[in-house]
Design brief:
The protein is an all-alpha fold. About 80% of the residues lie in helices and about 0% in strands. It is built from 19 helices and no strands. It starts with a helix and ends in an 8-residue tail after the last helix.
Length: about 400
């Protein structure tokens, strides 16, 4: 029996998201070494993360639209090449502004080329086990944190932060570009975008973004990411502040990444059985509770235990947004629609690290970051509870002919 190529797409997606996003997210490992070596503030370095996620959000919408038109392979190839360039150039930055622009803008735009296009392509390959397949591709993010965090820490310890970042950029070129060559569209989807539109007319992206349901999904994703991005980014530095050795602190982030991997797979299986909305609401509630518990962490054991719960929660909810978008708005403009939702999400991802750094520099503690993040997480739960069933949403949407 021949191998269903959809599972090859899943495997390739795991590898690309692992190395691509893992490389971008290593900034949390580089935070303290850069501050110590360059004399920049935590807020200043976290400002690169702010730009990172803002540009990734804009990039996700742009790359998602391009993937609908030209295919995911070309998009991922271009993004992989650009990401390597950004990492290598950022490693040679001599001023904070240079670093913020090189790492924040170039790396951010490049990273937007991976998640939305690959998730969109994966949904097109699967009719059964779609939630599981999407969750596995998203699991690459978790594997990336688990693998790239200790690798970056080891490179920094063995050499310095500049050499470490240069090597990570080279690794992106060596892995992402060859892997992207295996990406292909499912059979029957090789026609041009115009031909597909004529054969299967449906909603335009302009109509979709004006619907109340799109606003609810996008706001939930925004609040979800705003809640967990600060605690994730400052997790290692917070552990070091509490007396955990630097290498052990890096493994705490790896533990959270490993837990998020199990969360993605577990929640994907649950979503296929009980529905994406129920699974999403439960995961968001667990995430909000876990964030609040960071106020009470002390030793390494407590950091590991909380990383397991927090990682499972934030990892589990992330793939579910793609399933919700696919259920509500269909396949034809999946890249554009999910790219638009991802734009809202990355705005939330951008705020968390910067606000966390600002709060620390202002009061010398991350306590207010955890309090605020937990409150925002509860807000995400409240918005998610307003999601309507897909059939009701579809009935309420305007027909394409009514828009003219």
């Amino acid at each position: 029996m021949p191998l269903f190529y959809g599972w090859v797409i899943v495997a390739v997606g795991i590898v690309i998201t692992c190395v691509g996003f893992g490389a971008m997210l290593t900034l949390s490992i580089f935070l303290q070494p850069i501050v110590e070596a360059m004399g920049w503030s935590r807020t200043g370095v976290a400002g690169a993360a702010l730009l990172n996620f803002l540009c990734m959000g804009v990039g996700a919408f742009m790359w998602g639209s391009l993937s609908d038109r030209y295919g995911t392979r070309a998009v991922v190839l271009s993004g992989g090449a650009l990401l390597g360039v950004g990492m290598v150039l950022a490693s040679q930055a001599t001023t904070l502004l240079q670093f913020q622009l090189l790492y924040g803008v170039i790396v951010g735009v490049a990273a937007g080329s991976f998640y939305a296009p690959l998730i969109s392509t994966t949904t097109r390959w699967f009719t059964e086990n779609r939630s599981l397949a999407v969750s596995l591709v998203a699991a690459g993010l978790s594997v990336g944190s688990t693998v790239m965090a200790p690798l970056s820490r080891w490179l920094i310890t063995s050499y310095d932060w500049r050499t470490a970042m240069w090597v990570i950029g080279d690794l992106v070129w060596l892995v992402v570009i060859p892997a992207a060559l295996f990406v292909r569209n499912p059979p029957g989807s090789t026609a041009t975008a115009a031909a597909r539109a004529a054969a299967a007319p449906g909603l335009t992206i302009g109509q979709v973004v004006r619907t109340p349901q799109f606003a609810a999904v996008a706001l939930t994703h925004f609040a979800c990411c705003a809640a967990h991005s600060g605690p994730i980014f400052h997790m290692v530095t917070h552990a070091i502040d509490r007396g955990v050795p630097a290498m052990a602190a890096a493994t705490v982030l790896s533990a959270a990444g490993l837990a998020s991997l199990t969360g993605k797979i577990g929640c994907g299986i649950f979503a296929d059985r009980i529905g994406a909305k129920r699974t999403l609401v439960a995961g968001l509630a667990l995430q909000a509770v876990a964030i609040s518990l960071y106020l009470f962490t002390g030793g390494l054991a407590s950091f590991y235990a909380l990383a397991a719960v927090f990682g499972f929660a934030y990892g589990g909810v992330m793939p579910l947004y793609a399933i919700v978008v696919r259920e509500y708005f269909g396949e034809r403009i999946m890249g554009s629609a999910f790219g638009a939702v991802s734009l809202a999400a990355t705005l939330g991802m951008a705020l968390g690290p910067w606000l966390g750094g600002w709060a620390y520099d202002a009061v010398g503690s991350y306590a207010w970051m955890f309090i605020g993040s937990s409150a925002i997480g509860l807000g995400a739960v409240a918005i998610a509870l307003t999601f309507q069933p897909p059939q009701l949403v579809g009935a309420a949407l305007p027909s394409p002919s009514a828009a003219h």
